[in-house]
Structure prediction request, 697 residues.
Amino acid sequence: MSKGLYIATLEPNSGKSIISLGLMQNLLGKTAKVAYFRPIIDKEDGDKRDNHIDTLLSHFNLDIPYIETYALTRNEIVQNRNAGKIGDSLDLIIKKYKALEEKYDFILVEGTDFQGEGTVFEFDWNVNIAKNLGLPAVIVSTAQDKSLEDFTSSAEMAYKTFKSHDVEVIALVANKIQPENVEIIQNSVRAFLPETVDFSTIPMVKSLASPTMKEIKETLNGEVLFGAEHLGNLSGKFAVGAMQLRNFLTHLREGSVVITPGDRADLILGSLQAHLSSNYPNISGIILTGGIVPEPSILKLIDGLTTVVPIISVNDGTFNTTHRIGNIKSNIYAESKTKILTSLETFQKHIQADRLLEKLTSFENKVTTPRMFQYNLIEKARKAKKRIVLPEASDPRILTAAARLEVLDLVDIILLGNPKEIKERVTELGLTLDYNKTKVIFPSDYEKFEDYVETFYELRKHKNVNMDMARDIMNDVSYFGTMMIYKNDADGMVSGAVNTTGHTILPALQFIKTKPECSIVSSVFFMCLDDRVSVFGDCAINPNPNAAQLAEIAISSARSSEAFGIEPRIAMLSYSSGSSGKGEDVDKVREATEIVRAQCPELKIEGPIQYDAAVDLKVGQSKMPGSEVAGQATVLIFPDLNTGNNTYKAVQRETGALAIGPMLQGLNKPVNDLSRGCTVDDIFNTVILTAIQAQGI
Prediction:
């Protein structure tokens, strides 16, 4: 079951609070611990809190600290976007959402309101956030002040945009519909909306559109003279006091807001008396215009009444006040008990909540975004700190990555080399390392050096290695680092920034060796593309694997994919798709595919298949209709090293994708190889991968 649901809208004043309130009530009836989260709130003005959050927290008595219920203010995300740091905003949203996910069974997420600066970008924000959180969505749109064509076209655009960004839409809600238009709008929407997506209509509910006295007071910047405890009263029609009392009383209606100059004591007292009288309707409040406050004797009289509606003084004249109240777009506040109860009743009447929640039980997120993938990497590494040895400590890139890793406290780093030289280099680079946390070991000075020498001798004496040779070899940092892993003095190693791939892997093959089920060591890159993460294998180790080896690479890559939270859908790549191609190369891929199916029937695999058919849904379904892999592959297995290495580099350079890896597969303990052109980010990410592998994946 999905652990969350995203409620999105297309415009301000859509009435999505009805959906938030209704879903929260239903979720709390079925789920023990439910959280509420708003990624972006409208503003944070001093001590003023977000109204949506306060309403949900208060009414449902949710036990969540306010600070945990949102990530950013609107101003903050606009500033980050303008500074080119929108990725930082996404990282924070993911972090705060994940923190709730660990503590709660379900998180109801509500999107933005399209108010203030940045509204032109808000729809994209909501799509991007829902995608990066991996959540299905409910889209809420209002039909108020729209033609049928305008409503339908905007709803269709929204649905298709979410779908094109791999966000599953489980329901579309049309709000504020006139009853006579329900059937027309249903037919219009169903023309583009699949039957699998729920479509509901909610009629215009007048009481929900009416502002409360609190909203009127805040809009007019008024001063409450009396009746502050009744600011939740809903307003009805206006009763403007511009006539004598005997005529004015005939204009009062249930819930009227009396608008009168502050010096009309007759109308003020007459309205209050009418409110108390069983012969006249109740009024909601009185607005005193012109900045005029009644005389002290009148105030004293009002103060002595047992029941007083809100009386609010404003500076505007009567005409402007009436106009401004008429333009108020009403919201629901924590103290708006009547509106909240009306919203809940409206939801239950018009939305089939059980069907919506049932869809969540079968929802499966098939996309892992790069931001979510990188967040998960860091969190997995943090949960069980591992000791990672870096044998090439003289390289400035290694030292810079080590300093960054130390600050984040993700792993315990062991640097190999001359301590004096390393410390001097750290100072030259302007870095800071805590040598109580980050160990620096010079192999020949290490207290276990002789034990390592003897162990290597015992392991390799059948290859005519003597003690002198063993001692020389143990002075080699690659061999020494690998021996640290073998002897459980370290959990993993990352090398290759200076040394060759062979020099990194050979020691591991000699005495760490491969897992029982693996005959070869292979590799994968995690390719963080713009909208997804794909697993590429093998792009670094095996030049020309045979069918059995190719099948083993596919299985190992699928297991790596699973371990890092990506559902494996394996594409065995070739120059031909399906059964059309002939030749030795394509036959090898076809045979490897059948081996995987026989050994691991639970894996989704397709092959041979061309790259475009593997990753483009339209192409994939046209070439291989009905395939579970075509067009949505997550694990791409290349037929040889030449193809794989060139493809990953081409994708990386041409798309700007982040390539994390290579991560080696098949060894009993993790050793990973860097390229000699690696960056600090490459080293940082590879160390994290290694730390996660060391947890026993």
